[in-house]
Amino acid sequence: MQGKILIVDAIATNRIVLKVKLKKAFYEVIQAASLPEAVNMARAELPDLVISALCLPDGGGAAELCAALGKAPQTEHIPMIAIGCQAEPAARIATLQAGVHDVLSQPVNETLLMGRVRSLIRTHNATAEWQMREDTCRALGLAEAAPDFDAQGRCVLVSDDRAALQKYAIQMRDVLRARLTMSTAGAVMQQMTEQELPDVFVLVLPGDPAVAMENLRLISALRANAQARHAGVIVLQTQADAALGAHALDLGADDLMTDGFDAAELALRIKSVMRRKRMSDQLRASVRTSLQAAVFDPLTGLYNRRYAMPHLERIAEHARTTARSFAVMVGDLDRFKRINDIYGHASGDAVLVEVAHRLRASLRGTDMAARIGGEEFLIIMPGTTLPEAQKAALRICSDVSGAPFTIPGSATPITVTISIGMAIGGSGEDGPVAVGDDTTGCALLNEADRALYAAKGRGRNQVKLSRPAA
Prior knowledge:
The chain is an alpha/beta fold. The chain has 16 helices and 18 strands.
C-alpha cells in the first residue's frame, strides 16, 4: 500500500466517493464520522494523512480535529487536508492557522487532490524516518537537545515579472516576519552554490501554461542540488491549473497556492514551510551529531573502536577479493601512565590530542587511524606492501618522538615515544602473507597486538613485525 489515510466526514456518501478514489491509487483507507471517533482512530491507527470535512457534527471541524491531534506526540505531525464548500476567507485562514495543510473546495479536482496526497505523505514519511533515527540515537544516549530559538528566516520570491513581485513584497511586509527578497529563476540557478541559501523559495508561475511548465524546471534543479535540496519550495499559480499544480507537487514542491496571490495565506504557508524545514534541519543535525558521537573519539577526533573493527573486517574482505596486501598496526604510547601521574590528566589528554594530530599528518588519505584504548591506537593501511608499511611505521615513530610535546602541566616540553606492532594481511608478490590460514581482521589485530608487546619488551620506541608461522 502507498500509505494509510483516515477519512473523516459525517456524510457516508462523501466518505465512500473519496474512498473509491484513494483505493484506486492503492492507499489503505480507514473512516470516521465524528471528531471524537476520528481522534480515537488516529491515535490507534496512526495514519499517514487525514482528510477531513471542513465541518463536522457537534460544532467541530477540521481545525478542531487538527488541534486535538496536536495534543498527542504520536499524532501531532500527521498532515491534514480539509474539504468543504467554498469557505469564507477568514474561515479558510483560521483553518490553515490551526495547522491544516490545505483547504480544498467541493467539487474536488481529483488530479489536484491526488497530487496533494502524494506530496504530503512523502513529506510525512521522510520526517518520520528522520524522527525514528533521532529516537534511536536518543535511546542510546547520543542525541543532543534541539536548540530553542526562532531565528528570522529568509524567503525569496521568484518570477521574471519584477513589477508583480514588488507589489507582492509590499503587501507581505506587515504579515511576514522574514527577510524577503526578489529574484528570477535564472539568477536562482546561478546562486545555488552559495553557502547561505534562503529557507523558502516562492515560485510565482505566469498565466501562460507553457512558460509556467518551463519555470517548474527550477524545482527539479533545487531538489538535485546538494546545497539547495532541503530548502522549502512554494508554488503560487496566478492562473488555476490543477494538472500543473499536481505536477509541481510531484516534482518536489512543499506547498501550492492555486488561486492566486493572497498576502495573509502566503504568509501562513511560508511560516509553515519554514517551521517544517527548521524541524527537519534539526532532526538531520541531531542524527548527524549522534552518528559522529557513535564513531569518533571525542577527545582526539580519531575513529573509535566501534567504527574501527567493522572497518578492519571490510578491508580484510576487500584484500581477499582483490589479492592485495594491507597493513594493521597497533601503537601504544610508552610510559604514558607516568605522564598522567606526574603532570595530571589534562596533560595526558594534551599528549593524546597531539599524537592524533601527528598520526593524521603521517598517513595517507586512504589510511585510517583510531583510538581503541586509553593510549592505544589502531592504524589500517589498505593496499600496502610490507616495505611500505615498515617505512610508514618507522615514520610514525619518528614523528611522535622527533619533536617534544608542550603540555599544560610542565614548564618545559616533554618527549613522548610510541611502540608499534605490525601485521600484514592479504596477498603480496610472494603469495599469502597473513598469519596462518586466518586472514580475518580480528586475527591480524591479535598478531599486531602480540608484536606490540614484543616491541615493548625490546626496549620501546620501535616497530616489531609479526611474521607468519613457518
